[in-house]
Structure formats: C-alpha cells, structure tokens
Amino acid sequence: MTVPETLVDEHHEPLSDKCESHLDENRNWPTHGTYEYTSYYHSRREIVPFTDFIAMDKEFDFVVIGAGPIGAALAFKLATDNPTSRVLVVEKNWAEPDRIVGELMQPGGCQAMEQLGLQNVFSDISAVPVHGYYISYRGRQLHVPYMHDANGQLRGVSFHHGRLVMNLRAACKAQSNVVCVEGSVTELLGQMDNNRFTAVRGVRVGPQRIQADGSDECIDVCSRKLTFVCDGITSQFRKQLNERPVELISHFCGLVLEHEPVSSDTYFDGPTGTTSHVSRPTDTAGNPLPMPHNGNVMLDGVGPVLLYQMSERETRVLADIPGPFLPSESNGQLRETLRTSLSRAAPKHLYPALHAALMRALDDSRRIRCIGSKFIPATANNIDGAVWIGDALNVRHPLTGGGMTVGLWDVVILTDLLRTHDAANSQQVQRVKAQWQWRRRPRALVVNVLSVALHALFAAETKELGLLREACFEYLAKGSHYTMQPSGFLSGLLPSPMLLIFHFFSVAFLAVYLRVSDESVAYSGGSLFYRVYSAFYTLYIAATVILPVIWRELQP
C-alpha cells in the first residue's frame, strides 16, 4: 500500500506500556470527563418488577414502550421537560444489551445528544472518537474527514452498543418522575375501526416472559397524554401504523478484533484531533486498522466490509453479504463466503496484519452473529394519542451508521414541539405530528436514501453498479466540496435532499465519462458505440437506484 508522505509518522513505537487514559490528548472531546449518572449504570433499585408494578398507580402522563437508545433518550427528555408529569418506561430486559450494530454515532447524532442534555453520555464507557472514513478500493485509499465548524473538526464516537444504552438508561433511572418497569407491553389499548386503531389511550402490560397460552396476568395502564412506541427494528406494533412489507437488502456478519491501543501523538495532530497518520500495513504490534479512530470501509469484498473501534482495544468487523438470503453456517458455506470476502477486502500483500487478524477472528469464532439489513420508510401517523419513533417508525441500511442520528433528531424535534403545545389536546398533538413529519423529513431522507444507494453501489452486483462504485471513489478523491459535502451527508450534518441528488447524479455522469473514454477499470472494453450505449444504460441504473427510494421516503 502506498502511503502519502505527509501521513507517515517516523516516531511510531510500541504501545503496550502506555496508559489507555492518555490516548486522547484533547480533554474537551465527548469521550472524556465524568458522567453524572454513572452511579445508576448497574443499579436495579429504580427498576420495578412486574409483580410490584401490579400494586402501583396505573395512570401516567406519558408511556414509553422500549428503553433502547431512542426510548431511553426520549424518556429522559420528557421527564426533564415536564418535571410534574409521570413517565412510564416499559422494557422487557434492563440488563446490558449485546448487539452488533448501533455502535457508531455520527457527528449529527452527537449534536442531537447535546440538544437533549446528554452530551456526557459517551463518558466512562471506553468510547473512541471518530474523525471520518478511510476507504480502500482496488489497492487505492482515500480519507473522507468529517466537516468542520467554527470550533474545528466535528467528531463522531464509536462504542459498545450496550454500554451506551446503559448510560442512557442510567439517566432515565435518575429522574424521580420516571417509573422504570421490567415487563412486556402485550397490546395497545384504545379505539379501533375495522381492526385499525384510531386512538390509543394506554397499554396492556404483562410479565417479562409471556406464556404462549395467554394465561399470564396483565394489567391495563392509562396514558393521559401520549404513548410512544420505541420498541425498535423488530417492533411488534409497527403493523398498526405501516402494513407495507419489509424489504431485506442484505446481511451484516459481525466479528471482533482484539489489539493494542493507539497513541494520540502518533495518529493525531494536537488539540484539533485531525488524523495525520495512516497505519503501516506491516505493523503487527499495534492496531491493525488502516486508519484507527475512523470508520474503515473496504470495498473489494463480496460486499462492503466495515471496521470501527468499539474501544481502544477492540474493533468491530461487519462484513456485508448482499441479497435477502444468507449462506448456511451449518454446512460451512457462510464461513467460506466470509473468508473469501475478507481476503478480497484486505488482501495479504497489502494489509498483512489486518488480514491475519481477520482470519484469526473468523477461525476463533464459535458462532457468527448476523443481522438482516432492512429498509422501512416512515409513514404518516394519524392515530390519536400515539407516536411511533426510532426504528419502530423508520429503518435504513446500517452501512452508513445513521440510524441513531435520525432517531435522536426525531426526539429533539418532537420534544421541542411538545414544549409549546398541550400534549393532552388531541388537535394540538395532530398539529405537532404534522410539523414534526415536515421538519424531520430532510435529514431522515438524506440519511436513509444515502444508506440504501451507497449499499447498492458498494455491493456492486452488476457491471453498471461496479462502474458507479468506481466513479464514486474517484469523485470523493477529488477533494474540496466533492469530498466534504458527501461527508456532510454521511455524518448527518448536511440535511439537503437536493444537494444529495446533485452529487449522486454528478457521480453518475462521471461514470458515463469513465465508460465512454474507456478509462474505467471496473467496466472496460467494447467499441465506441457499445461504450456509449452502456454508459447511458449505467445512467439509467443510477436513476433506478436512488429515485424509487426517494419516492418511497416522500410518501405520506
């Protein structure tokens, strides 16, 4: 691998004797400092078992179903904005969750956390600052940094998903007007017409584990103002709002690499946190990532391979397998597919340390954890008394790591609107919902459309998509606004749908030029007539990639 001279650090040294607490020299970064709710992280004193909840008052102002990242952040904000209101949070399991996605927060999501008063939530969980993306394609590399503001470069954060969730739940548990119940919401309660809810007035709560025969004792809870459905990507109540079939795009298969930490003086330039070094690929002593403290995207696998740190000593590997069907693990087909993909993404002659670490992680894993990547567009909510939010409302491909950014900004916008309206007045709430849908749409559309479109290009299942992938890499490599504005889309900082469309079709026209001029490596050869024909067919393919997704996002 050729490394730019300006990025090479000649003073690299082994890090085994360095203290992990000194790896990040800027004490103003969100991963530093003390979290004010740390004492509630493991506490179960505030969690009410279902058996105890039976004897409690069953009327609440707000009911939140689910205490994932979005539900917990929403409950905290509702409680702090409405100190005299009672907030109920029902979660099936308050123990630390263990997922293989939702481990990277884009700068846009970090800004939303600040708006919610949770700017310290990344402290005390070994989180790592993220400065942008390193992209590898056909032996070439480029760095796409995050945008800057008046205070310098904006940053994201990567972490263990469960630790962030526990920090958010700790903030909920610390609020005196929040009741945290460990149980299951079995159904919504309210008025129905033709088996469809027209109004929600409460929920039915049962024990943590529901018997199949329905013999469990359940209790009805009244929600005086609003019920919020935040039960995530597998929401059991989504069909009450959206009956469209779920589109399964691909699967992410997760592994974990363990390694030595990196030092700040090796990889970063002073307090600005600007990445100034690309790791030497032959360095087996330290972090094997091509560019630590960044999202590393390798485009030469069966599908894109994404690597990011969960801590200074652990890196998540997500290998994408395109298509709705996953190879079988029982007959070894899944492992063979992953071995091929990882070997192509990080070839031994370019990345010997990373290649060895990937093969070792694959061989050592007893069971490969996989998760389906889905696309579910948002649907307008006309059901009185209830709001669907987070992945219960809207799901996008996890490739770009924008899900929590969209969900947290949904919480920011919704709670800002509710502060100036009466949540008990159904007419005012309907106006709030309409304004919320309008204000959330630009950011949600950009993040959602980009995730699906980029996956189509990066997975490149046809020659035309391979040409578009090559054009995308060449476009980002141009620098200036060709790099920084797409970076703004990725990071959730530039919610401009029209600008996204402009850049996407600029990439498409660059693909046309590469094909007609026969400068493309991904799609070469043929007569001039055939090259012109295939170039404009590629333009048509580009339109079929992005326009249907935009159309679905714009539907009410």
Polypeptide structure, described:
By secondary structure, the protein is an alpha/beta fold. The chain contains 13 helices and 22 strands. The strands form five sheets. Strands 1, 2, 3, 11, 12, 13, 14 and 22 form an eight-stranded mixed beta sheet that branches. A seven-stranded mixed beta sheet has the order 7-6-18-19-20-15-21, with helices on both faces. A hairpin with a 4-residue loop joins β19 and β20 (314-322). The termini are far apart.
Structure in a nutshell:
With 556 residues, the chain is of the alpha/beta class. It has 13 helices and 22 strands.
Secondary-structure topology with pairs:
Blueprint: E1 47-49, H1 50-53, E2 59-65, H2 69-81, E3 87-91, E4 104-105, H3 107-115, E5 128-130, E6 132-137, E7 140-145, E8 148-149, E9 152-153, E10 156-158, H4 161-173, E11 178-182, E12 184-193, E13 196-206, E14 219-229, E15 247-258, H5 264-267, E16 268-269, E17 274-275, E18 295-298, E19 305-309, E20 314-322, H6 333-345, H7 352-364, E21 369-375, E22 386-388, H8 403-419, H9 426-459, H10 463-476, H11 481-491, H12 497-516, H13 528-554
Parallel strand pairs: 1-11, 2-3, 2-14, 3-11, 6-18, 14-22
Antiparallel strand pairs: 4-10, 5-10, 6-7, 8-9, 12-13, 13-14, 15-20, 15-21, 16-17, 18-19, 19-20
Largest sheet: 8 strands, mixed
Instruction: Give the termini separation.
Output: 48 Å
Q: Which shape, going by the Cα principal axes? A: globular
Helix and strand content put the structural class at alpha/beta
Q: How large is the share of residues in beta strands?
A: 15-25%
Mean pLDDT: 88
Helix content: 25-40%
Low-confidence spans: 1-29, 264-285
H/I helix tally: 13
Number of strands: 22
Q: Report the C-alpha radius of gyration, rounded.
A: 24 Å
